Amino acid sequence: xxxxxxxxxxxxxxxxxxxxxxxxxxxxxxxxxxxxxxxxxxxxxxxxxxxxxxxxxxxxxxxxxxxxxxxxxxxxxxxxxxxxxxxxxxxxxxxxxxxxxxxxxxxxxxxxxxxxxxxxxxxxxxxxxxxxxxxxxxxxxxxxxxxxxxxxxxxxxxxxxxxxxxxxxxxxxxxxxxxxxxxxxxxxxxxxxxxxxxxxxxxxxxxxxxxxxxxxxxxxxxxxxxxxxxxxxxxxxxxxxxxxxxxxxxxxxxxxxxxxxxxxxxxxxxxxxxxxxxxxxxxxxxxxxxxxxxxxxx
Length: 298
Description:
With 298 residues, the chain is mostly helical. The protein has helices at residues 2-7, 26-48, 53-79, 87-98, 105-117, 128-131, 133-137, 155-158, 161-168, 171-210, 230-235, 242-247, 263-273, 285-288; strands at residues 84-85, 277-278. The chain has a two-stranded antiparallel sheet. The longest helix is centred in the middle third of the chain and has 40 residues, at 171-210. The chain is globular and about 55 Å long. The protein starts with a helix and ends in a 10-residue tail after the last helix. The model is unreliable at 1-24 (pLDDT under 50).
């Protein structure tokens, strides 16, 4: 049934790829796409120019902090509600996520919920199985038909006016990140702290959509092609344990075992000790031991 679900378009009508409504802010759309191009051009300029340990360290710091905003904030909190927190820290997570230049928290989480709802069917815009590597990785991001937020898919968070504000004006976080990088180290700080780290952050995040459904191992017999990949887990602070995640998506830890590195979860656990977050969900034993892929026969 799993393979039939992946291969048979009739089980997943392609009409879902064309959500109703048109983009009401075309200038923003083209500005964002131009920004993606310029980020890649700027990365080449930075790599070909002068550098120093200081600006490289700045790029790494901006990458790690903002990756946490995506993994712990946009993904594990807003998309999956894997833990609870206060309204003020909820706002902090949303604001931090906007600095990653991946649009607003409501839009991101709603799109990701669709990924799980239709995973590896033609309705899943992230699926390399259905749409090819380029489209799954970032090609879909360039399409206007995916631009609008469907607030019905994220009613639980769309009721907060401050989140709706950040979702609409997510560029404020982007510009704030640019300004902070430039204030720390001038033009080189902007190039490395914002441009280079954003390029790396973008492809690190998108690799979960594309590579984590192609390369790696499978522990659980999910109905999609999700895989666990150590290297992607290192790059994304724990998101690379993608087969684990598709098996039990509401868990705050995606590395189910002690040897599965998951830096985002370690930070969340620390925050739970400090009382900033609570009810941090982890998979119960019966979930960890369920639907295991049978060992290969020799």
